[in-house]
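Tokens in:
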């Protein structure tokens, strides 16, 4: 195991940190492990507002778990109302910049008005606790407003990333039987309008349960409004009352469903609930981002993914932060847009993805070097393993060797960060997400659940439930049980391979299931395969992740064709577009290879391991991940396949 450089926290950082030094970390970790009930109970009392106190901190009967049962709270109240009788009332909550350069600064007080009004709009459409709203918008301030308004009333929201196609949107609306869709005319991306409303129109042809569509005007592009069903946001909002008290909701009331890719063609609706979710979002803002009152915090994710839910909306607002939100592309109009924003808003905490970092490296140091980024004090990374070379560049070129980097490991299912360094305590090792946070008991095991020895690769599991964990899959509790809790009995199976080193640091190696990670976006091989076989020319398809220097992985497809004469190069291009149409642009395959037959086992299973080896062997991977790591993942995944 190649141990790289170690970076202990600087004395200045430690002095002001929420958790100081390794003793501070160890003490918290010990308390949480020894007496979780007391530990989480005290935090819930201290950090959240409650309408009614709970009677049990947790009830655990895996996979069923309840946190703070019997209690009543409201996520929106905690994110907004609670700050209004404090010094934060006129503090900027959302510091927004549109891609064309327009700006908005929304204080907590103003946010309260916007959210209350929109909650009244939703009420006015007859929506109530337990109903479902699908939200398909660009990164505009009304997006968090819509989420919070739903949370205020207990309407379960499901945000669909604007990069998903009408087909993917339709599948999600149908699965949820949503009553309302909230959208925009379009969104700005690299100076062009991405049409959103027209995709909604296409999706809704087969979604009879949707009664209302609320459309925010953002780009001013032409849209068709269907009489009786479609309403302009600004028209409904006009005259809506600003008085809309937050509903007291049970701790376990579902807050949102977020679809993510699993190992089948059908995305999973991950269900997150109220109190435990919010508590862990708030705690990680302090433990991992070391948030202080005066920070200007920026997470560059899209709210369409879990990172945006927990670390643009719920975590930062519940913690009373000033959060920057940016609408558009990082390289528009020039590759320095992010650095420009950091300089302009004096951003102090910056959280982005390894894919973004690798593309910044490629664009050249002149772009960040042209800006004063001395306001930065902490950097973060999420979504995929960060290779040591990218880590070192981020540390030196962006952080000027002053800012710790928190490499945060978590998943849509975990709700909040589970493994990451506390920056004032834990020495950093580039490429490792380091140590588990308090209350989190990860282990690396073999398929029988036995702990692997230090330094050995295996499956990453979490031994004990935590407050922000997914409670179930939407209308599919059986799949939840079998996928996450039964493969290693009684433990949560993450689907990642990892190893733990002699210092207890976790090194995440990648997925062991049929899930790819493209630019930090989760994508199932099966989803792409089912999209391909829906095309009339395709007989069979097998899809694997191929190492890619910038995006971590790229989509590689092996396709056999139905009888006929095909113009293969033309068809390959058509299939790439087809996948983008069926799923979304980010899923577009990099490679389509035609084959006469796919390699299969005697029982007819496609031998993905072989295909993975084929696409890996003829790629020079730079240092994205070492070949040794990849072969381990390939090996572990083939074992998991056979299981
Ligand atoms: C991967 C994103 C290494 C991992 C928050 C996980 C990471 C999947 C890291 C979840 C990290 C996320 N280091 N790998 N710091 N963070 N991953 O659900 O494979 O979109 O299982 O959640 O991303 O992706 P998801």
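Residues out:
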């Amino acid at each position: 195991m190649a141990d790289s450089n170690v970076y202990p926290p600087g004395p200045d950082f430690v002095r002001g940190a929420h958790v100081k030094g390794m003793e501070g970390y160890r003490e918290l970790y010990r308390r949480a492990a020894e007496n979780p009930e007391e530990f989480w109970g005290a935090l819930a009392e201290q950090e959240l507002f409650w309408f009614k106190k709970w009677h049990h901190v947790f009830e655990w009967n895996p996979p069923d778990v309840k946190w703070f049962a019997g209690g009543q709270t409201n996520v929106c109240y905690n994110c907004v109302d609670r700050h209004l009788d404090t010094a934060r009332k006129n503090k900027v909550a959302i510091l927004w910049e549109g891609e064309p350069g327009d700006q908005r600064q929304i204080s907590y007080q103003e946010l309260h008005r916007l959210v209350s009004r929109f909650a009244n709009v939703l009420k006015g459409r007859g929506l109530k606790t337990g109903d479902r709203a699908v939200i398909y918008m660009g990164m505009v301030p009304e997006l968090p407003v819509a989420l919070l308004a739903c949370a205020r009333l207990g309407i379960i929201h499901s945000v669909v990333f604007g990069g998903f196609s009408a087909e993917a949107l339709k599948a999600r609306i149908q699965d949820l039987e949503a009553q309302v869709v909230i959208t925009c005319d379009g969104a700005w991306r690299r100076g062009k309008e991405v049409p959103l409303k027209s995709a909604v129109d296409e999706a809704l042809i087969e979604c009879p349960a949707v009664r209302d569509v609320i459309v925010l005007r953002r780009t001013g592009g032409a849209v068709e409004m269907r009489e009786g069903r479609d309403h302009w946001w600004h028209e409904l909002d006009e005259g809506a009352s600003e008085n809309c008290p937050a509903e007291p909701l049970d701790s376990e009331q579902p807050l949102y469903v977020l679809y993510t890719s699993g190992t089948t063609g059908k995305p999973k609706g991950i269900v997150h609930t109220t109190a435990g979710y919010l508590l862990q979002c708030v705690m990680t803002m302090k433990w991992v981002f070391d948030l202080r009152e005066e920070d200007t915090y920026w997470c560059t994710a899209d709210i369409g993914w879990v990172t945006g839910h927990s670390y643009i909306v719920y975590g930062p607002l519940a913690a009373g932060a000033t959060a920057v939100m940016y609408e558009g592309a990082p390289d528009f109009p020039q590759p320095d847009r992010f650095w420009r924003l950091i300089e302009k808003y004096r951003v102090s905490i910056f959280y982005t993805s390894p894919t973004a970092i690798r593309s910044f490296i490629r664009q050249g140091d002149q772009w960040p070097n042209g800006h004063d980024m001395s306001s930065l004090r902490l950097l973060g990374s999420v979504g995929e393993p960060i290779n040591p070379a990218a880590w070192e560049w981020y540390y030196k070129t962006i952080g000027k060797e002053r800012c710790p980097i928190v490499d945060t490991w978590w998943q849509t299912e975990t709700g909040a960060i589970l493994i990451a360094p506390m920056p004032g305590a834990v020495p950093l090792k580039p490429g490792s997400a380091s140590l588990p946070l308090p209350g989190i008991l990860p282990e690396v095991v073999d398929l029988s659940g036995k702990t692997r020895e230090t330094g050995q690769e295996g499956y990453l599991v979490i031994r004990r439930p935590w407050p922000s964990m997914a409670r179930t899959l939407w209308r599919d509790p059986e799949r939840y049980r079998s996928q996450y809790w039964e493969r290693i009995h009684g433990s949560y199976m993450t689907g990642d391979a990892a190893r733990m080193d002699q210092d207890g640091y976790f090194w995440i190696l990648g997925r062991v299931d049929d899930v790819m990670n493209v630019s930090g976006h989760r994508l199932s091989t099966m989803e792409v395969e089912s999209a391909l076989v829906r095309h009339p020319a395709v007989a069979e398809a097998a899809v694997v992740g191929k190492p890619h220097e910038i995006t971590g992985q790229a989509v590689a497809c092996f396709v056999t064709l139905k009888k006929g004469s095909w113009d293969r190069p033309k068809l390959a291009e058509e299939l790439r577009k087809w996948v983008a149409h069926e799923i979304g642009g980010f899923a577009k395959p990099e490679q389509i290879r035609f084959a006469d037959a796919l390699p299969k086992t005697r029982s007819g299973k496609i031998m993905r391991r072989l295909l993975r080896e084929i696409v890996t062997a003829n790629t020079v991977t730079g240092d994205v991940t070492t070949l040794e790591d990849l072969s381990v993942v390939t090996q572990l995944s083939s074992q998991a396949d056979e299981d």
